[in-house]
Amino acid sequence: MEILILNGPNLNLLGIRQPGIYGNERFEDYLTQLKELYPDVYFIYRQHNSEGELIHALHEYGFSVDGIVFNPGGYTHTSVSIADAIRSIRAPVVEVHISLIFSREPYRQKSLTAAACKGFISGFGLDSYRLAIESFMPKH
Q: What is the CATH number of the domain that holds 49?
């Protein structure tokens, strides 16, 4: 199984950016844990701060991977283009957020991208990513 984890703007600063909201752990360290937890999954990890690069990554991997775990960051609330890109690819996408967006500022409480996704997970810290990965695992 091949899964793309795609992170949007400012998520390269996890571990130092607003630790009270996003925690103290770097994403790369968490990714190491995910690889240990799911040794049969091949993870591709990309992080981009620009909208166009995120769309490019969706186009590049969206026809070949088994699933995409996607945290669009601030573009969640603003990008019709990213939502259109998600709708244009074959791979199922699960949108994730570290914080509970519905308890944040009013402008953060609406996702323009979630309706294009297979699912939506928010508020479980970095564990939101693991929960999304579980959604792609074969059911016994």
A: 3.40.50.9100
Q: What angle do CA 101, 135, 12 make, to 5 degrees?
A: 50
Long-range residue pairs from 23-27, CB within 8 A, at least 24 positions apart, any chain: 23/98, 23/125, 23/126, 25/126, 27/126
Q: Which domain holds residue 109?
A: 2-136
Band of residue 96 on the pLDDT scale cut at 50, 70, 90: very high
Please give the tally of structural domains in the chain. Answer: 1
- From the list 30, 75, 97, 129, the catalytic residue is 97
Output b/e per residue, 25-35; b: 16+ Cβ within 10 A: eebeebbeebe
30 counts as catalytic: no
Both tokens assigned to 127:
């564990």
**What is the average pLDDT value for the chain, to the nearest integer?**
92
Q: Which residue type does 52 have?
A: G
- Establish whether 56 is a catalytic residue: no
Own/partner long-range contacts of 26-33 (Cβ < 8 Å, ≥24 apart): 27/126, 30/126, 30/129, 31/5
